[in-house]
Amino acid sequence: MTLISKYLSVVLASMLKFVGGPLAGLALQLSLLETIVCTVVGMMVSVFLFTFLGQWLRLVWEDLRKSKRKRFSKSTRRAVRIYRKFGIAGIACLTPLLFTPIGGTLLAVSFKASPLRILSWMLVFAVLWAVVFSWAFYNLSAVQDWFIKK
Q1: Cα diameter, the chain
Q2: Keyword set for this entry (predicted)?
Q3: How many domains does the chain have?
Q4: What distance in Å separates the CA atoms of residue 20 and residue 39, rounded to the nearest whole number?
Q5: Cα separations (Å) of 99 from 11, 78, 79, 94, 102?
């Protein structure tokens, strides 16, 4: 497997599920720094795409749905509570932990936050969580034994 394909694998994994980036980087035996950079790039590609496509996707999705969705479900109440208490920074902080990069971005877009604020906060927390997850996976021997055959 070439180095470029390894990088793309980590980027694609973190585009869909953030924690997949550090795990893929470890499994592909990339360096810690390479894994962190590729993980951040993957999340930010998703965030960038869905920040600017989010409004359009939301409108299309609502048109395609036959039945009206309940206005407040358990998950929407939780999201509103987080947004009211912590704003876009709270959504961005929890995106790598609880949501996918796509889901967190669409949630931030649904609160009509400015694209600059969404991109800025998502970048801050993408870097933070990429460092935390990657460092943890690279330094926990149980995780290493699982992914790396010696």
Answers
A1: 54
A2: Membrane, Transmembrane, Transmembrane helix
A3: 1
A4: 8
A5: 17, 12, 11, 7, 8
> Which residues have a Cβ under 8 Å from the Cβ of 96 and sit 6 or more positions away?
18, 19, 43, 104, 125, 126, 129, 130, 133
- DSSP assignment string, 42-58: HHHHHHHHHHHHHHHHH
For 25, the token pair is: 């980087």
Distance CA 115, CA 51 (A): 6
Q: What is the pLDDT of residue 38?
A: 98
Domain enclosing residue 26, as ranges: 3-147
What confidence tier does 147 reach under pLDDT thresholds 50, 70, 90?
A: low
- The half-sphere exposure of 89 on its side-chain side, counting CA atoms within 13 A, is 4
pLDDT at 131 over 70: yes
Residue with tokens 């479900």: 73
R_g (Cα) of the chain, nearest Å = 17
d(CA 9, CA 38): 9
pTM, to two decimals: 0.82
DSSP string computed for 61-87: HHHH-SSPPPS--HHHHHHHHHHHHHH
Place of tokens 């998502």: 122
